[in-house]
Amino acid sequence: MKITIAAIGSRGDVQPYIALGAGLQRAGHDVFLSAPAMFRDLVASYQLKHLPVSVNPQQIMEHPSMQAAAKSGNPIRLMRSMFREGLPLIRRYLEEVYENCRECDAVILTQIPFGAFDAAEKRNIPFLQAGLGPVYPTAAFPMNGVNLPNENIGFVNRLSYGLVEQGLWQFFRSFQNTWRKETLGLPPLPWDGPGARIRNRAPTVLGYSPSVVPTPADWPANVQATGYWFLNEPHGWQPPDALTAFLDSGPAPIYVGFGSMPDSEARKTTHIIVDALRISGQRGVLLSRSSRLGGADLPKTMCLVDSIPHSWLFPCMAAVVHHGGAGTTGAGLRSGVPSILTPYGADQFFWAQRVEALGVGPKTVSYHKLTAETLARMIRQAVTDQSMREQAAAFGRRIESEHGVEKAVEFITGFLVGKK
Questions:
Q1: What is the reported pLDDT for 230?
Q2: What tens digit of pLDDT does each residue of 365-406 get?
Q3: Is there a single domain that holds both residue 396 and residue 407?
Q4: Of 35, 107, 198, 223, which shows the fewest CB atoms inside 10 Å?
Q5: Helices 348-358 and 326-335: crossing angle, nearest 10°?
């Protein structure tokens, strides 16, 4: 069966879907990944067919209004800023995703279903939703990224999902309904958008561990958290010689990286990291990629890397410091070493709270409140707290045993076979 996965976002958003696509392909399906053009080489390295989308989410994330919204920790404000900066791109995005889904037999919708859902509806082909976090409405806890003063009120928790969904839908609504009518000949979607329609017509598969977030009792049977969709290093990949030499030259270092989070003060942040490692007496591996860290001169106790597979790198560390993106959090938990989360915005605070509650990382400090002293304190705790280290190691073994990709493939294949 020809399956198109419609993914959008940063590398952390897209990478799990590459893992899922590779698993589906091993099961005999012909998989196409609709994703930003900048991921062409990454997708090709796993023998998937790449269908490019010209929208570059990284450019949107680096806009000053986006950075201010992310600092606020308010997901509604973040989405408003994202789509205000991205409004000129919406029509192009819808058309490109629709075109990428025109030749397939089934569509896998991801965090932004617009365009792909319309293609499935227009062609009357099966679809299902695949998320990276607990995005299905529940009374058990609020939508990740929504901070409520009292999370014990079930109907308020459930309402939070609709509010976030509406914050997303209202920016697409005018463009999408006009496009559906004029280009596709489809009726407009109702005021509340496609969310309920998608949930009522298709199952939802979720790529995170139920050991991290227990499955709520009010979810239907067709919603399943399978375990994380990990992407291991591609066949034949070898680490840079400079990195292996650094790792061999001393004790296990601390990884520090903030993924695709934009930082207008990257030099200042680099100094905080350098000072924290010096105060804590640790060596470090610093990720420079999208956050532009590393502008300052680094001591010999630190190694700068551009992009190294987490599956290979993290188990070599004494602890990992990161922003708390869903995929990076999963990789940190899998590695079996303590995780130090410094959330930047949105759902990262949710994952940081879970890591802290599981006892596999120190108490969370926001990225925007980070100082050398607080980071050094967290690093010292992660390195010296034997109970935390043992808990992290045990949790890593549990995560590794879940085989999330295989379970997701089984779930998806079972659904699609039933639709034949």
A1: 95
A2: 888 888 999 999 999 999 999 999 999 999 999 999 999 999
A3: no
A4: 198
A5: 20
Q: Is residue 412 part of a domain?
A: yes
**Whether residues 386 and 415 fall in one domain:** no
Sheet holding 204-206, edge to edge: 49-53, 30-36, 2-6, 106-109, 127-131, 204-206, 223-225
Q: Tell the residue number behind the tokens 């990990």, with chain if given.
A: 230
* Structural domain range at position 276: 241-400
How does DSSP assign 188-208, residue by residue? PPPTT-SHHHHHHHS-EEE-S
Residues 88 and 191 in one domain: yes
How many angstroms separate the Cα of 98 from the Cα of each of 54, 74, 115, 191? 13, 30, 5, 21
SS3 state at 85: helix
Cα distance between residue 83 and residue 163, in whole Å: 16
**322 and 262 part of one domain:** yes
**Interval 354-361 mean pLDDT:** 95
Compute the average pLDDT of residues 166-191.
87
CA distances from 144 to 12, 134, 163, 169 (A): 16, 7, 12, 17
Residues 6+ apart with CB under 8 A from 154: 139, 140
Identify the weakest region by mean pLDDT among 56-65, 94-103, 208-217, 299-308.
Answer: 56-65
Residue with tokens 């002293």: 373
Q: What kind and span of H or E run contains 130?
A: strand 127-131
Number of domains in the chain: 2
Q: Do residues 270 and 173 both lie within one domain?
A: no
Confidence of residue 34 (pLDDT cuts 50, 70, 90): very high
SS3 label, residue 32: strand
Are 216 and 270 members of one domain?
no
Which residues make Cβ contacts (< 8 Å) with residue 249, sequence separation at least 6? none
At 147, list the tokens.
Answer: 């901070």
CATH number of the CATH domain containing 178: 3.40.50.2000
For residue 32, tell me if it sits in a domain.
yes
Name every residue whose Cβ is closer than 8 Å to that of residue 209 and which is 6 or more positions away in sequence: 225, 227, 228, 330, 333, 398, 399, 402, 404
**Per-residue model confidence as pLDDT tens digits over 82-92:** 666 666 677 88
Is position 233 within any domain? no
Same domain? For 179 and 260 the reply is: no
pLDDT, mean over the chain:
87
